[in-house]
Amino acid sequence: MKLAHLNWRQAERVLADPSTTVVIPIGSTEQHGPVGPLGTDWMIPEWIAGEMEKRTNILVAPVIPFGVATHHTSFPGTIDMGLETLVAVMRGVFGSLAKHGARRFIVVNGHGGNDPAIEKAGLEISRSTGALVALLNWWSIAPQLNPAWTTGHGDAQEVSAMMHVHPELVDLSDCPKTEVHELSNDFAFTHLSSIRYKGAAVKLVRDLKLGLPQGGFGGIPSEKASAEWGRDMMEAVVEYFTAFAEDFGKLPLDRPSA
Ligand SMILES: [Zn+2]
Fold it and tell me: How far is the CA of 110 from the centre of ligand 1 (A)?
C-alpha cells in the first residue's frame, strides 16, 4: 500500500494495526559526480520501496527528496535542508504516523548525511512510544551482499543503480574524468571528505568542490558503471530489504523506556 493512495479512513485502519510496517524512503537532491542525476539519492530509495511494496505487505510513505547536503552546496542544483530542519521533518513524519498507532518504521535511506537526523528523531519516537525504527542504507548494505558492489557517493555504484532504476537519466558517453585535487602526498583523498594520513583515515571538514571539482568521488569512477552491475545489485537489495521488512513486522514491540 502507498499512504498517498489511501483515504484517511483507510489509513486509520492500517495505522492502528500493530503489525503494519511503515517504509519511509528518503534521500537528497545533490551533486552526484559528473553524470549522476541530482535526484540519485531519493530516486533509488523510492524505487526500492516501490519494489518492496509489490512483494510484501507494507505501507510506503511518500519519498522525502531533501536531506542534509551542506557539504555539496557549491554544486548547482543541490538543495540543503540542514541538520536541524531534517530532524524536525523526521520528527513530524514519525510523530504524525505514530499518533495514529504506527509502531514499526523502516527508513530506506539513500544519503549518508541524513543518518544523524534520522537516528535522533528515530530514538525520540522509539523512547516515547516504544516504536521499532530501522535505518537501512542501501549503498552500505549492497557491498555486504557482494563485495564487488562497493560503496561510494556519486561513483560507479550509484550510477550503476541509476542505470537500472532510471536508465534514461544517465549518459555515460558524456562522462568527464573524475578529478581529485590532492592536498599533498601525505594527505591523499580516499573518499569524499576522508583523507589517508600515515595509513589511517581522517575526516577533513570542508567544501567538497575544493578537492573534487567534478563532484562524486566515492572511490570507483563513474565511467566504470554498468547497467548489469545495477540490475544484479538492485535485485539483491530489493530481495534483502523485502525479507528484512517481513521479519521486522513479526518482531515484538518494545515498551517505552523511562
Ligand atoms: Zn548519493
Answer: 6
Nearest to 178 by CA among 129, 214, 148: 214
Residue at 162 is within a domain: no
In the 8-state DSSP scheme, what is residue 219?
S
pLDDT tens digits along 73-110: 999 999 999 999 999 999 999 999 999 999 999 999 99
C-alpha distances (whole Å) from 159 to each of 120, 135, 166, 170, 210 are 29, 22, 10, 7, 22
How many domains does the chain contain in total? 1
CATH of the domain at 13: 3.40.50.10310
Domain that holds residue 24: 3-147+227-248
Distance from the CA of 115 to the center of ligand 1, in angstroms? 13
204: closest CA among 187, 229, 221? 187
Instruction: Report the separation in Å between the CA atom of 199 and the middle of ligand 1, taken as the mean of its atom positions.
Output: 26
CA of 185 from ligand 1 middle (Å) equals 27
